[in-house]
Amino acid sequence: MQACPAEFNFAQHLAEINAGRADKTAYVDSQGTLSYGELAQRVAKFAGLLQELGIRREERILLSMLDINDWPVVFLGALHAGVVPVAVNTLLPAADYAYMMEHSRCQAVFVSEPLLGTVQEAMGIARHEVRHVVVARPEGKLAAGLIELESRLQQAAEVPPAATKADEIAFWLYSSGSTGQPKGVVHSHANLWHTAELYGKPVLGVREDDIVFSAAKLFFAYGLGNGLTFPLSVGATVVLMDERPTPAAVYKRLVEHKPTVFCGVPTLYASMLAFDAMPSKADVAMRVCASAGEALPRDLGDRFTQQFGCRILDGIGSTEMLHIFLSNREDDLRYGTTGKPVPGYEVELRDDEGRPVPCGTIGDLYIKGPSAALMYWNNRDKTRSTFLGDWVKSGDKYVCDEEGYYTYSGRSDDMIKVSGQYVSPIEVENILIQHTAVLEAAVIGAADGQGLVKTIAYVVLRSGNSACDAIQQELQAFVKGQLAPFKYPRTIHFVDELPKTATGKIQRFRLREQEKH
Ligand code: 3SK
């Protein structure tokens, strides 16, 4: 494999490799298509628009947009300009956006109209430096002070790419931890290239004649690779979906656009297989699928392959490593495991003292590979405890068998991964105990009948309140009202007391054990 050149701009790299495909469709969304030629032109114009708005190299912009054809234009246009896009989860409440605006000191926000209200609410809370709010696809006339993306883009001048270095900061994504605020994960231009060269092309096997559809959104590291880095690195076509990834919405795209590569998460695969109006193998054209976010139960993989005749390559990646570093492969697949290290990455399982553990023993997963993030922005402590020289601590526990297959064995911390997204139990508990009926709360993740993790809360009610369906629903709505909706507990158990250490620390591991029996 060639090395990434030292002088490297990932947006320019994509424009160069796709220069001969001007008429080929790069993206298709619910409103139309964007050819490779149009994409290249709009990226260069977007960089011109940033200059016109007075946004300079290395400054940050916030990208809070649904998966529409403008998303890659904004992301790559910023890279082209040497400006740093901070791509954020579109499901977050205003308080989280407010934190991200302050923390990233973003100079402008690029937002889809349905998210504008949340962004404006966040601007009312945050001490921000936002100078421009640019709205993609507004339905009607925008209020004074807001900029419409399309008209400004059309008028903007195309500018040449910034001469960035491979190791220069290209973009950020946010990742949540069990305590504290989300961490700004800082990635370089070269990191995008490494994920395509090491995983996208050789493992997932994305090719020029593919149509790629990722139900995981572009603001996730997983979705960014699937829906931008990999397909554009080989000149493939991408289907984008701005809706929530329900089975109906996903099947609609699978039948209409006939994607050949599909990327999802285990909960989605489970709901697709449980869907009443499931299409037949002849209605779809998938040749390979990917899964990440949480371990794919063996039975789900088997049933999906039986139904659609194609395999799901289950893998694990992280926002810190940018994409998948441990994966099954088409020619080496064992459902129920996460496969083997992706060539180019090394993984090690270590005990509490940092010593490698033998085969068959659970250990903490460490990864070494070229796509590791540069740091967590303005968070020296967490950077130091995660990025350890060449190695990155993942926070996951794994076991490796005699044949070299790795199997997921839980988290090293209390974090819960639900449908591929981290939920901090502490964050949910802190909301629950703000409810007047709640005395104490503990939150854990537990596998349901299909082996998929769901959030469960244990709640001690204040005297005078009694456990019933109504209070359960009220508490669920209370959490949904304050946190991103995926964080609410799917089940609430009302208990008389919580297990605690002598010093009063909640023992979530005891609740997890109880949940298993
Ligand atoms: O959750 C994962 O396994 C994952 C995969 C690819 C990129 C990022 C993440 C978090």
Give a summary of the structure in a few sentences:
Helix content is 31%, strand content 26%. The protein starts with 9 loop residues before the first helix and ends with a helix.
Share of β-strand residues: 25-35%
Q: How large is the count of helical segments?
A: 15
* Oligomeric state of shown chains: single chain
Strand order of the largest sheet: 2-1-11-10-12-13-14-15-16
Might you state the CATH topology name of the largest domain? Rossmann fold
Give the CA-CA distance, first to last residue. Answer: 49 Å
Number of domains: 3
**What's the shape?**
globular
Class of secondary structure makeup:
alpha/beta
Q: Give the CATH class of the largest domain.
A: Alpha Beta
Count of beta strands = 27
Mean pLDDT over the residues: 95
- Major sheet: size, sense and barrel closure? 9 strands, mixed
CATH architecture descriptor name of the largest domain: 3-Layer(aba) Sandwich
CATH homologous superfamily of the largest domain - what is it? Answer: ANL, N-terminal domain
Cofactors and ligands: 2-methylbenzoic acid
GO molecular function: acid-thiol ligase activity; ATP binding; CoA-ligase activity
Domain AMP-dependent synthetase/ligase: 18-377
Protein name: Benzoate-CoA ligase
Keywords: Ligase
